What we know:
Number of helices: 7
Low-confidence stretches: 124-129, 131-136, 146-151, 172-177, 185-211
Shape: globular
Strand content: 15-25%
Strand order of the largest sheet: 3-2-1-4-6-5-7-8
Number of strands: 8
Distance between the termini: 30 Å
Mean pLDDT: 75
Largest sheet: 8 strands, mixed
Amino acid sequence: MKKLSVIVPAYNEEETVELFYDAFAKVENQMDVEPELIFVDDGSKDKTLVEIKKLQKLHEEIHYISFSRNFGKEAALYAGLQKASGELVAVMDIDLQDPPELLPQMVKMIEEGEYDSVATRRKDRDGESRVRSFFARQFYKWINKVSSLELVDGARDFRVMTRQWWIACFPCGNGNDSVRDSLTGSALTLTIFLTKTANGPLVKLHGPSGD
Length: 211
């Protein structure tokens, strides 16, 4: 049985830690994997670390990393990836904007052997202000004009990937500043890219390189 390492950065999320774990636990048995849940406390000022430690005492699959101060999500992802020991690695947010119920389908697609990474993007911008949505879209239009790498509007960090894939795509020697760029950009050229809806299916947008 393969191990699935799930990396979950957290900053001032004391009220969300247990909610996230409960949501993850509901789908844990739907996957034929050994779970490894890695929380990365990014220097939280509240009781986030306290809540993580409470869960760790109750569940042996839970591990954590604690930063002395806030270094940012990129550093948290970097630390989590370095600690992950699974053949499969997932990255997701703790605030449940990345629905854990999508994990079984994403893991299944990896296990079928055709893809090395399954990623997600927002299908729409419901809940955002018109101003924020406008500037977000303009940013993606601008960056795609000046960059040779196409970025898809709404691309999220939420993904499942093989260990081999993330090691191959990781920006060696560039530090943690480009971790998220590597994860987001590489998915568009090397693997399938998926979209999600709140309660709907995953939809294929791109196939693996060479298609």
